[in-house]
Amino acid sequence: MPGIEKILIANRGEIALRIIRTCKDMGLQTVAVYSDADKTSPHVLMADESVHIGEPVSSESYLVIDKIIGAAKETGSDAIHPGYGFLSENEGFAAACEKNELIFIGPKPEAIRIMGDKTEARELMDKAGVPYPPGTKKALINIGEAEQAAGEIGFPVLVKAAAGGGGKGMRIIEKPEEFERGIKAARSEAKNAFGDDRVYIEKYLDSSRHVEFQILADTHGNVVHLFDRECSIQRRHQKVIEEAPCAILSSALREEMAAAAVSAARACDYVGAGTIEFLLDKDHNFYFLEMNTRLQVEHPVTELITGIDLVEMQIRVANGEKLPFTQEEVRVQGHAIECRIYAEDPVNNFLPSTGILTKHRPAEGPGVRVDAGVEEGQHITIHYDPMISKLCSFASTREQAIARMVRALEEYEIAGCRTTIPFCNFVMMHPDFRNGQYDTRFVPEKFLPDELFPDHTGSPAAVAIAASLLVNDSQNSKDEAGVSLSYDGDQLNSNWWKNRR
Questions:
Q1: What angle do CA 8, 371, 319 make, to 5 degrees?
Q2: Across-strand partners of 413?
Q3: How far apart are CA 318 and CA 145, in angstroms?
Q4: If you count Cβ atoms within 10 Å of the first and of the last residue's Cβ in the chain, which end, N or C, has fewer?
Q5: Which pLDDT belongs to residue 452?
Q6: How far is CA 49 from the centre of its chain?
């Protein structure tokens, strides 16, 4: 592959491993970077070379641009892949790569800047004819301005960080007397998370669904979409379960949203892999939410339904190559679901759970993909994102993909920390999810531990039992095997349906 021959991965965990594997498939050399906490992590051991970059805390290692650039130059790397998180959407990092004659495997700094500033992005979408929720185009100056804008668009409203994402710096305000406290809280959180306390407001769309489109763009003017993903199962405004394609989009609506996504990408002169995120209201009107100028955590479900390696496409585009397919050649085959397996306690408000992974045995078999960044014996720490792995199922139909995911969740064994496996099973079993009739309120409205099992004391088995009891009789008749899932090393085996009446 002329041009790029060695890539430094400026990340860790499962995404670093994911990138390394594609690099090896392409015959490219890889360099890993690691903090003190990651010196024996799988991504470090799998890379051809590795460079130590500092203390466990991210601000002393993975977020230090000079250390990443230094490691790339020290190892003679041609390019840097940022993965997601950390420096992946940092325009200064992309610019530093260019300045040091390193290829940044991602968009140009200006595209990152524009789409990273939510108010500027809204203005750009307005010019491009892409619909967005009613609200302020610019950051708020004072409470009075916020109250006036809210009066015009109507309550409830969302206060959102202008420079942020991932649910940080976001507050729902139901009435005027909540403004001052809500805006102060949002600004404080935004300042801590992004170093920027600017916020804006937009209309809160009740009963909305989170639907996004994967796009790819090269340096030759080609922009294509790789269809859609549904990401409405969220806790704290952060995704937990995704599926592709969305279960409720008509062909006409899908085509309209895809065209808007391509227009959004062209509007910012985008290059590489990116995601245009939309909110879909109960009347199936869609609105631009934001653009993620990087690879998404949930990219595997798109890869499964299209057969396209997104990391490979990122590398080829960064190397100046044309996309090897046209829009007409991209096809959807089957259905895919991703469950994020986090080291969290779903019964206890999804609080982080740390510990030594005394057992980690991922599910296997037909139609199952596991992107993991950990191995047995590793310590799950507080320093980084609590994701253990991404568990994906793929089948020819959505119903089969759900059944396959239930089987995979049952097989997955983890001990040493609590995980979201029981919660994911709860979702798979829930009639609303199975029928495709759910929205972003699913977790706060449906997953209610105190009501589902009032006597629970954080019991992991309770989630599995509650999930089992939610299956419809029509679905029960199709099931002939018991539910078994692993939580903190304990197994719950329930043949509840045999005696359900």
A1: 35
A2: 361
A3: 43
A4: C
A5: 65
A6: 28
- With respect to residue 117, please indicate whether it lies within any of the assigned structural domains: no
The pair of three-digit structure tokens given for residue 180, joined into one six-digit string: 């001052």
Query: Which domain-ending residue is among 299, 333, 367?
Result: 333
With beta carbons less than 8 A apart as the criterion, state whether 407 and 394 touch: no
Which of 203, 226, 241 terminates a domain? The answer is 203
- Retrieve residue 314's tokens: 């990122």
Q: Is the CA virtual torsion 395, 399, 405, 407 positive or negative?
A: negative
Residue 199 sits at φ, ψ, to 5 deg, of -135, 160
**Residue 209 designated active-site:** no
User: DSSP string of 249-298?
Assistant: --HHHHHHHHHHHHHHHHHTT--EEEEEEEEE-TT--EEEEEEE-S--TT
Total domains in the fold of the chain: 4
Confidence bin at 457 (pLDDT 50/70/90): low
Per-residue pLDDT band for 453 (boundaries 50, 70, 90) equals low
Across 388-413, average pLDDT: 98
The answer, as to whether pTM is greater than 0.85, is yes
Task: Give the DSSP letter of residue 219.
Answer: T
| Residues of the chain above pLDDT 90, percent | 72
Assess whether 322 and 406 both reside in one domain.
Answer: no
> Residues 436, 437, 440, CA angle at the centre, nearest 5°?
105
pLDDT of 312 above 90: yes
Catalytic residue among 187, 294, 369, 418: 294
Question: Which residues constitute the domain of residue 163?
Answer: 134-203
